[in-house]
Amino acid sequence: MIPKEILQNIRRIQITTSRMVTDAFAGHYHSVFKGRGMEFDEVREYQPGDDIRSIDWNVTARTGHPFIKKFVEERELTIMLLLDMSRSSYFGTVNKLKRHLSAEVCSLFAMSAIRNNDKVGLIIFTDKIEKFVPPGKGLSHVLRIIREALYYEPEGKGTDIPAALEYMSKVINRSSVTFVISDFYAKDYTKALSIANRRHDVIAISITDPVETDLPDIGIINLEDAETGRSFMLDTSSYPVMTKYRANSLRMFEERQKIFRSTNIDHINIRTDIPYAGELFKFFRMRERRIRL
């Protein structure tokens, strides 16, 4: 029996994200993702105005007349949510923990998927694969995904993004739209992103708290790395210390951006202190412009 409080939280997130999907994201989702997956239907004779890039040269050579390949939009997509639950996700100084914000983003895309009759699946990972929910449809399936995203208790502490991507490619046979939701405090994931993006449409969603770039001036504090357990003292009143802290953070974020650009991965940056709807709209508009071009 699921406790009443948990059911209420699941219901609250379901209602919130469902309303966002209905009011704002439904049309954007369809225009950005529907039609990206195309499957072969038939060949027909070339007609003036047809795109010459669609010419089937094998059939044209056999018949002596130009023929083109006709494609139709895939009837359904597979949406995969790769959710990082490493110990660093249990952090947040504004509004909510990064983990809870990640769960809400998962819910939003899951609700968008079932509204468009698409399948949606979930992989929870740390430094190992924690949980796999195969792609499915229906409200009960989405409620399970929301529940797992909110309340699953992982065993691992670290972050292994390559392992999550490799596992996803093994268990998902067809091409999917894959959202990697993480703070990306990890190493050596460039190659894994590049390989996965050749087969799947991979989108990175980074979750960041403002304190990860700028510490408040509160004197000497003891900090602990949530994933490694290493602790150290830091004087937040020291200008040189804070300048170095900010420079290191910005360098890390810039390196992350370079990885996304080099692997041709679209990136959505979500912060715990700013409503995420604006960043999602920005992503959708960018995708729509790209499709038109």
Q: What is the fold named in CATH at topology level of the largest domain? A: Rossmann fold
In order across it, which strands form the biggest sheet?
A: 5-4-3-6-7-10
Shape: globular
Characterize the biggest β-sheet: 6 strands, mixed
Number of contiguous helices: 8
The share of residues in extended strands comes to 15-25%
Radius of gyration: 22 Å
Name the CATH homologous superfamily of the largest domain.
von Willebrand factor, type A domain
Kindly report how far apart the N and C termini lie: 52 Å
Assign the structural class, choosing from mainly alpha, mainly beta, alpha/beta, alpha+beta, or little secondary structure: alpha/beta
Would you tell me the overall average pLDDT?
A: 83
Describe this protein's structure:
- With 293 residues, the protein is of the alpha/beta class.
- It has helices at residues 4-33, 57-63, 98-115, 139-151, 161-171, 190-199, 239-262, 277-292, and strands spanning 38-45, 67-73, 78-84, 119-125, 129-136, 177-182, 201-208, 220-224, 231-235, 266-271.
- The protein has two domains: 4-32 and 75-292, von Willebrand factor, type A domain (Rossmann fold), CATH 3.40.50; 39-73, no CATH class.
- The protein has eight helices and ten strands.
- The strands form three sheets. The chain has a six-stranded mixed sheet with strand order 5-4-3-6-7-10, sandwiched between helices. A two-stranded antiparallel ribbon has the order 1-2. A two-stranded antiparallel sheet has the order 8-9.
- Strand 6, helix 6 and strand 7 (201-208) form a beta-alpha-beta unit.
- The longest helix is centred in the N-terminal third of the chain and has 30 residues, at 4-33.
- It is globular and about 80 Å long.
